[in-house]
Amino acid sequence: MKVLVLAAGLGKRMKSKYPKVVHKIMGKEMINWVIDTASKIGSEIGVVAGHKADVVKKVIPSHVKVYIQKEQLGTAHAVMSAKEFIDPEQDLLILYGDVPFIKEETLKNMWKVHKNTDADVTILTAVMNDPAGYGRIIRDETGKFIKIIEEKDLTEEQKKIKEANMGFYIFKGEKLLEVLPKIKNDNAQKEYYLTDAPALLDKVSTYAIEDVFEVSGINTRKQLIELEKEMRMRIIEKLLDEGVTIIDPETTYIQPMVKIGKDTIIHPMTFIEGNTVIGEDCEIGPMTRIKDSTIGNRVKILRSEVYGATIEDDVSVGPFSRLREGAVLKKKVRVGNYVEVKKSTLEENVAAQHLSYIGDTFVGKNTNIGAGTITCNYDGEKKNPTFIEENVFIGSNTALVAPVRIGKDALIGAGSVITKDVPPGALALGRARQVNKKEWVYKRRKKK
Ligand code: UD1
Ligand code: MG
To answer: Is residue 16 part of a domain?
Structure first.
């Protein structure tokens, strides 16, 4: 099945200089939520863009084909603009770029119905208490589908119909190509309505959705934040059900892909984003942001930023640590305040508790990194690696000028600037020797 996403609409009500579908919800552009879901069921994805199409193109994956609808003359006209995309041999699913949270499961079920009934078109519908604004499904007395009528073209009697069109369809490609040219614009809005297509086909199926939230569209910034809030609360409720404690849902932001284990506690003002997996019995936050990271069991992360890191069991991070992409913290590592780790592996039981930068570095197990230790990984042109073997003790305020290797069991005196490799077991001192001048202060005072 191919998937076509309609996204040419202006989105005037957003009052934005950017096209509506590139606005972010839950940290990702609206249209990319749709594309990501579509990618799970579709073999190929196409997008119909119009208003500022170049801006839309920039944010979507490069494998997605973009078709341009110059003038927005209606949903059927939009599909027509992507005529070459329609394969007569395949089904075509039509989605909207401004309806971000449609579920893969719903689309799969809809496709099942479509195939089982051998339909020419299957329409996603919902029975709503207040269907105002939606097109309605008109049936005959036996319940057979007759047509869809748009809100603006409904009679007072038809307005009472509660079965509404959600705007998503699966067509047999061949059938869609057959009926598209027959659609006219003789309606209240003078638009080419895709909703006119089903009435022109023989076999029409409908698939009713239970949860209208999934098909909620975004037209205004208010709707955007409302939808985001609802999604956020649903994610939190699911996690609570699964055995995660979330102290303050109002200030906790967890994205849908995140997985969290039982008995983990999430403290207030915490953001957990992207493809993050957190184990059991952890304590996260307060005031912590984690993105695209894997975290083991019994890990504590307090007031820290963690992006693209891998953290094993029993590690403690923070307060005020910053772990960046490629930071690997093995079991029982302790990283403390104002410590930044980038593209480095800290083996089991390493401690770097205060004021350090560790970049492009390997640190062997049981090594202690003293306060203020800096790996000088950048020489102005390129990044260089630092190797620190196991059981090393690095004294406070040491600068390790990379590339450099510190052998196991070595000891570095505080305040050293280390520019040469240190052999195993050696004491390295790279600083000026201290000089004490006896009575010097008193002598100077006397002179004055
Ligand atoms: C459409 C349906 C309506 C349904 C509703 C559900 C039609 C005629 N009506 O109405 O029955 O109840 O969706 O939300 O289809 N678009 C284009 N090019 C265009 C027009 C629209 O790309 O020329 C895109 C828009 O960007 C949007 C989507 O198609 O993502 C829907 O368009 P919109 O005008 O919002 O349709 P509705 O009036 O809501
Ligand atoms: Mg409209």
So the answer is: yes
Instruction: Answer whether residue 12 is part of any domain.
Output: yes
- CA-wise closest residue to 326 among 339, 341, 305, 312: 341
Residue finishing a domain among 197, 215, 233: 215
Pick the residue whose CA is nearest to atom 2 on ligand 1: 167
In a shared domain, residues 139 and 265: no
Residue 205 sits in a domain whose CATH number is 3.90.550.10
Same domain membership, residue 267 and residue 395 = yes
* Residue 439 neighbours by CB distance under 10 Å: 8
Does some domain include residue 85?
A: yes
Is the same domain home to 263 and 338?
yes
Token couple for 187: 């309606």
Q: pLDDT tens digit string along 229-262? A: 999 999 999 999 999 999 999 999 999 999 999 9
| 114 noted as active-site residue | no
Tokens linked to 414: 């505080």
Query: Which domain covers residue 373, as residue numbers?
Result: 244-428
In a shared domain, residues 160 and 274: no
Domain count, the chain: 2
Closest ligand 1 atom number to CA of residue 164: 12
Atom of ligand 1 nearest to the CA of 74: 23
Distance CA 262, CA 25 (A): 27
- Both 104 and 167 in one domain: the answer is yes
**117 & 250 share domain:** no
| Alpha-carbon distances of 51 from 65, 175, 329, rounded to whole Å | 16, 29, 47
Percentage of the chain lying above the pLDDT 90 cut: 98
Centroid of ligand 1 to alpha carbon of 100 (angstroms): 14
Residue 233 lies in a domain: no
Phi, psi of 292 (to 5 degrees): 45, 50
Same domain flag for 83 and 186: yes
197-210: pLDDT as tens digits: 999 999 999 999 99
Ligand located closest to 166 CA:
1
Backbone angles phi, psi at 47, to 5 degrees: -130, 135
Ligand 1 center from residue 172 Cα (angstroms): 20
Q: How far is CA 316 from CA 269, 339, 440, in A?
A: 19, 12, 47
Distance separating alpha carbons of residues 304 and 285, to the nearest angstrom:
8
Nearest atom in ligand 1 to the alpha carbon of residue 48 is 22
Which pTM value belongs to this model?
A: 0.89
The reply to whether ligand 1 has any atom less than 6 angstroms from the CB of 303 is: no
- Residue 185 CA, chain-centre distance (Å), reads 40
Model pLDDT for residues 88-137, shown as the tens digit of each residue: 999 999 999 999 999 999 999 999 999 999 999 999 999 999 999 999 99
Please check whether residues 211 and 277 belong to one and the same domain: no
- Give the distance (Å) from ligand 1 centre to CA of residue 75: 6
